[in-house]
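Aim 2 progress update. The chain analyzed this quarter is reproduced below.
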Amino acid sequence: MFKGLILSLLGLALIDAHVLSADEVKLKQNGRVTGKILAEKTDRIFVDIGYTVVEIPRDQILEISKTAGKGVKKPMIAKPKTKNRGLYKTLTRRPAAGTVRDLVKLLGESVVQVKTPSGLGSGYFLNEEGYLITNFHVIEGESRITIEVYHQDDGQLDRKSYKDVRIMALNKYADLALLKIEDKGAPKFKPVPLGDAENLNVGDKVFAIGSPLGLERTVTEGIVSTKTRQMQGLLYLQTTAQINPGNSGGPLFNLHGEVIGVTNMKIVFGEGLGFAIPVEQVRYFVDRREAFAYDNDNPSNGYIYLPPPARVSGGDSSTRTIKLNVKRKKKTQQAD
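Predicted structure tokens:
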């Protein structure tokens, strides 16, 4: 019944959907879904509508119209050039603002679902090697982590699970976690560039991609309500983009395709009151990840303490330093 309700809502919501491919599925009750048909089975078909895949039962279909010889068109905007900044990337030159529809096609593959035995959240790739960001509270107290990635190849979506996931660094205070996929044979992943939340203006359009309530690859759009909402000693971006459980750890984008925040909470008794960690905190956390490194030999401790400098730790040198200080102190006392 729950699946049927979701499909009914999707059918109503997608009557006027605008997507890049031309396959059309006419439904009962005057509904239609436009997208790319990925697979057809005896009892159902699967349609990619750009930001998610819809499963449609055959008994709800009146007619299927395909456009022969036309594949999925490329996004209207070109892939921007990026520059490596350590583990993450930034744009070398900010392109003109795009549409949410085109940006989702360009960036959607970079957003992942983070699963643990106790729940799920979202995340996004920082680089091709599999480093990704999510919230601390998504993986808190967990060691078994699975990352669900949608790989796109010639318009086809291939969902794959990665289970060899290592916790690299944790920052409980900022609610951030750095993970790395270490599965053998894993392909190069598609990262998203980090932007600058300080350059945002109140009223700027933003959008989030995540897995609210487990509905992966869900897109919500809104504006920046305020840049400096103070809560528990930290500043957050407030947005009208809908945030729900499962969005946690996912990216908040501007219309230039840059991550400007990490969605992590909402006010449950209100609507359009979502919050995101500014991307500047992500940069600070990743750049100083050694200070927040996760100790796999001591999982209950979220930090690694580096050894002291040789001058302090060395037995002979430290002893000589102490003796020298004692002699100097005695001479000072005698002179007084």
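Residues 1-21, 69-76, 312-336 have pLDDT under 50 and may be disordered. The longest strand covers residues 218-231. These observations will guide the mutagenesis experiments scheduled for the next reporting period.
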